[in-house]
Amino acid sequence: xxxxxxxxxxxxxxxxxxxxxxxxxxxxxxxxxxxxxxxxxxxxxxxxxxxxxxxxxxxxxxxxxxxxxxxxxxxxxxxxxxxxxxxxxxxxxxxxxxxxxxxxxxxxxxxxxxxxxxxxxxxxxxxxxxxxxxxxxxxxxxxxxxxxxxxxxxxxxxxxxxxxxxxxxxxxxxxxxxxxxxxxxxxxxxxxxxxxxxxxxxxxxxxxxxxxxxxxxxxxxxxxxxxxxxxxxxxxxxxxxxxxxxxxxxxxxxxxxxxxxxxxxxxxxxxxxxxxxxxxxxxxxxxxxxxxxxxxxxxxxxxxxxxxxxxxxxxxxxxxxxxxxxxxxxxxxxxxxxxxxxxxxxxxxxxxxxxxxxxxxxxxxxxxxxxxxxxxxxxxxxxxxxxxxxxxxxxxxxxxxxxxxxxxxxxxxxxxxxxxxxxxxxx
Length: 427
Description:
Number of strands: 10
Low-confidence stretches: 279-322
Strand order of the largest sheet: 2-1-3-4-5
Mean pLDDT: 87
CATH topology of the largest domain: Rossmann fold
Strand content: 5-15%
Shape: globular
Distance between the termini: 36 Å
CATH superfamily of the largest domain: Glucose-6-phosphate isomerase like protein, domain 1
CATH class of the largest domain: Alpha Beta
Largest sheet: 5 strands, parallel
Number of domains: 2
Helix content: 40-55%
């Protein structure tokens, strides 16, 4: 049986605030301020000590949970031009080659996450350089101080790594820029902060659903089995974030992938039990399903929109994958929710190339295949800008979408009884 999302609740700011006990929406709206504050804190901590004149042999990044995206973003941005390799490690043991010539970056909001803390301990024991980001008064900060490394504290009031991403990510990007691993100047961080502020304004709780792309995406995906696909490396990182936020915040499992590698993996799902090909009777359509989620917003200026779901003939005769209006829920059981595809597309290339044209062609082919299989297709596309600015656009979208989805389903986005129970059992 498909979950039910309360459309009316999403347009009630007071009710949203009441259900959002830890003010998750407000915390997400501070992302731009986090980026600016983190830039200042990084320089105050002495990040300038990381210079290209004393570049390490290699860089290893340890981050997990809500902080995991930090490592993924650094690897993504450094890969094209970094003069040294960048590796990701979630926990010990450290690779045997890590030693005094290498730099280890450990990120943990609380400064107590076992994985990054253990990595920092082991790196310090081997004499590797340490660069850490986390709470000021924490075991991670102490390890770094003893190793004479650099520790960048996070700002006050940062209690959830999912809503404090930019407090953790910006210092790492600034440090990588200092070492010449990537290009991410203070001006670029300012552009990131401005884009995050713009998205927060568009996604604000007082904006009605039909004008709020994040709310609309939540409504469109709520009653589906979602999969998330990025149309390239940057979209793949954003898709990973979307999958994590859907699971941890909205409690909805979502497979994810990146084109071109995951094309077959995702498209294979179109043959499964959640589409028309998987056994639904074609040629029928339930008019009661035409609601807010079916509004065509392709002409709106906000850059997120739903894909049209078929022509007039399909509206009259029924798209494949639609529910059978003659099915008896008492005799036949609840209907199976349809597959939903969230495509995270990159902004159009400023200078089209063979690679960008091939990427666009493959993305269009996947979307067309999905529509013909009866998959509910929605997608999001950022405004132009530097790679990290476009990624910030995607991250803001999926973060707000997942939070609105949780609230619309009647869930508190920051409180999970089962996660709390698991913590109690593993102490």
